[in-house]
Amino acid sequence: MTFYGMDPEQVRTQAGRVGDASRQLDELQQRLDAITRGVSWVGEDREAFLQQWSGGPSARMREATADLTARSQLLQEEADQQDRASGATDGPGLPATGAPGSAADFGELIGGVVDGVRDGIDWLGDRAREAGEAIGDAVEGARDWLKDRFQDAKDWTSDRIQDAKDWFADRKNDLDEWFQQTKERFDRLIAELDRPFAEVAAERLVNDMVEDGTLSHVTDVEVLGTRTIPDQEAPDSLADLLLDNDETRRTIDGTEPPRQYLPEDQAQIRVQKVVGADGVERYVVHVPPTQGAPLHDGLKNPIPGWDQQNQPFGWDNNLYAMAGKENAGANAVKAAMEEAGIPPGSQVAFVGHSQGGLVASQLADDPSFNGPGGYQVTDVFSVGSPVETFTPADSRTDVLNVSHERGGFRPGDVVPTLDMDGASARHPSGNPAPNVHDVSFGTPKPADGFGGDMMDVAHESVRRDGNGNIDPNSGYYGTVRNNGDDAMLAAKDERMRGKYYGDGTTVAEDIVVDVKRADR
Asked: How far apart are CA 121 and CA 37, in angstroms?
């Protein structure tokens, strides 16, 4: 077939290629559009990005696709027209320069399409990178935020755990403190059950008198010096011990150096070093009774009468000793024993009248005194003393007090009854200690010429007339002297005989230690 102008088959082939390019560009646009819309991204930036994509590269690619489709159809129509034209014309074909389907126009078209596709791909890549960077920044920010929140939660939890630990520790401390206070209160209650009523009453009386200013007891003492009683005859009985003890409250004749006894200015503690029949050195310590300002002066004007004297065994000291408190009398005995050179661990027997027996029993009750590091108090022998408020710290210590009870017209001695037999809440019937004893006798009638009121008759240790002569039958001396067959007195005599007096014992040294209360 002869044709003029373009080659229809070439045009049709080109039209097919343009159509294929149109379809491929359409598929690419749809795939890119699906990818763009399928990104997991939420927010205003995503919406703005989709608008830019839809109105920019995507739109140009759709336009290019439509243009290529149109040009493919146009080329097909031009080829068909060429066939028709060539069928009517027998002349040679003429080039169709400038025709709509010319190669120049097609090249320009294809170049524009390629440039548009490339621009779309580049734009889409830029947006994808921007989106990736935005998503990366968002993810990194979210990770940092979550990390900070996790750390905040961890710190908060740690703080709450520490707060809980602190709270429980505080509660444990509170509970421990409560248990300790409860234990202390319980221990005090148990101790109060064991404390004698007389001791508790004396303590309250002392506290009240101190609080209202009527009593200010000075407990410190000062040793004034020592004296020796030469050529002392050894005692031979319990009654002889009372005679030796009674000398502590009067001027002792023949001491070296001599000294006049002043009751309100000093106390005389007598220490006898005795060598027993067994060759063992032991010590008899004589503790004096109440001395100094009389009771009635103290009641009228207690501070000048009691607190302004140097006598350690004044009336006020009775209250402190009965209450189990530190007192000048007990400190005076300890200072005198140290001054006399009694070695620690030595066996000691106390002899006392009235307050003397009370102070001696208090010392025997002290484990630091009557125990390791102190002395071994084997015996306390007293007359007219309230001794049952105390129980010796050493179970080997034997305490015996002799008292006068009411008999006939004669009154009893009230001083030994002040201990209320050592009765306590736990032991209302009296002190249960098997080594604390109180034996009572009727008050002996004084001989002619030994006057005095009835209280003096009952409480006196050794009765003397105006010339200093001793009544052998009255006072505690007479009671002990005339009742040696009493079971308790006989047992005490058996314990001490041959150790502290009689049956081969000798007095190696007889010392008087002068002690006063410290200056105020």
From this structure: 15
Q: Which two tokens stand for residue 22?
A: 């149109």
What lies within 8 Å, CB to CB, of 400 at 6+ separation is: 379, 380, 381, 382, 437, 438, 439, 488, 489, 492
Q: How far is CA 283 from CA 138, 209, 341, 416, 506, in A?
A: 101, 37, 10, 26, 11
Statement: residue 267 has pLDDT above 70: yes
Q: Please, is 232 exposed, middle or buried when counting C-beta atoms within 10 Å of its C-beta (0-12, 13-18, 19+)?
A: middle
> CA-to-CA distance for 437 and 486, rounded, in angstroms?
13
The pTM assigned to this predicted structure is: 0.65
Amino acid at position 222, single letter: E
Evaluated on CA atoms 451, 452, 453, 457, the torsion sign reads: negative
Tokens of 188: 């005090």
Smallest Cα–Cα separation from 267: which of 359, 140, 135?
Answer: 359
Positive or negative torsion for Cα 273, 277, 278, 279: positive
Query: For the ranges 54-63, 297-306, 308-317, 504-513, which has the lowest average pLDDT?
Result: 297-306
Residues 6+ apart with CB under 8 A from 483: 441, 489
Name the β-bridge partners of 407: 410
The position carrying tokens 């007598």 is 270
119-134 per-position pLDDT tens digit:
656 765 676 576 567 6
Cα radius of gyration rounded to whole Å, the chain: 62
pLDDT level of residue 304 (50, 70, 90 thresholds):
low
30: left (phi over 0), alpha (psi -120 to 50) or beta: alpha
- 476 close to 470: Cβ distance less than 8 angstroms: no
Distance CA 134, CA 194 (A): 88
Give all strands (DSSP E) within 147-247, no chain letters. 221-228
How do the residues of the chain divide into helix, strand and coil, expressed in percent and rounded to 5? Answer: 50, 15, 35
Q: Is the pLDDT of residue 480 over 90?
A: yes
Task: Report how far residue 455's alpha carbon sits from residue 144's, in angstroms, rounded to the nearest whole number.
Answer: 101
Which of 294-302's residues contact partners 24+ apart within 8 Å by CB, and which partners?
A: 302/209, 302/214, 302/215
Does residue 506 sit in helix, strand or coil? strand
Confidence at residue 28, expressed as pLDDT on a 0 to 100 scale: 79
Give 115's contacts (C-beta < 8 A, 6+ positions apart).
Answer: none
Backbone region of residue 33 per phi and psi (left: phi > 0; alpha: psi in -120 to 50; beta: other values): alpha
What SS3 state is found at 439?
strand
Cα 418 from Cα 313, distance rounded (Å): 18
**Average per-residue pLDDT in the chain?**
83
The tokens 């759709």 sit on which residue? 62
- Label the pairing between strands 267-275 and 281-287: antiparallel
Question: What are residue 515's DSSP bridge partners?
Answer: 223, 267
> What pLDDT score was predicted for residue 234?
85
User: DSSP per residue over 61-112, as a string?
Assistant: HHHHHHHHHHHHHHHHHHHHHHHHHHHH--SPP---TT-TT-HHHHHHHHHH
How close are the terminal C-alpha atoms of the chain, in Å? 158
